[in-house]
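Feature request, filed as a ticket because there's no other form

It would be nice if the structure record came with a short human-readable summary line next to the tokens. Right now we just get the raw output. Example of a typical job, pasted below so the devs can see what we mean:
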Amino acid sequence: MNDFTHFNQENRARMVDVTDKPDTRRIAVAKGEVTVNADLFKMIEGGGMKKGDVLSVAQIAGIMGAKRTPDIIPMCHTVGITGADISFGLDAERKTIEITAKVTCTGTTGVEMEALTAVSVAALTIYDMCKAVQKDIVIGNIRLMEKLGGKSGHYLA
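Raw output as currently delivered:
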């Protein structure tokens, strides 16, 4: 297990020490999908949900999720996020809402977890706001699309 940075010499979990790493600009982009039935898709698209504008609430929730990532991911560093944005793409044919999160910072560690958390929280918020209409909403395909900055450089899915 010595190849894994999150384990100490006793093979126990640890938070990686990033003290000596230089500050660099970091960017991470993550995506995910929420698939619903045709009726619910029309309600979300048209803003017809009783609880309010689903995508606006999900956008705010996703940004809040990015900011709170180290509170829910045990070994995640507290990062001074300098930007967070959530966007949505509506695919009427597939009845899918594609969520994209972009998170930025200047620091010693990346913001991949913050971007992934932002997408996850936005998706869960969509589910929460719509569960009274449809129980079998599917959340999936959450993944890192791009990462820039740091020692490992540029990653593009």
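Something like this underneath would help us a lot:
The longest strand covers residues 24-35.
The chain has one domain: 26-149.
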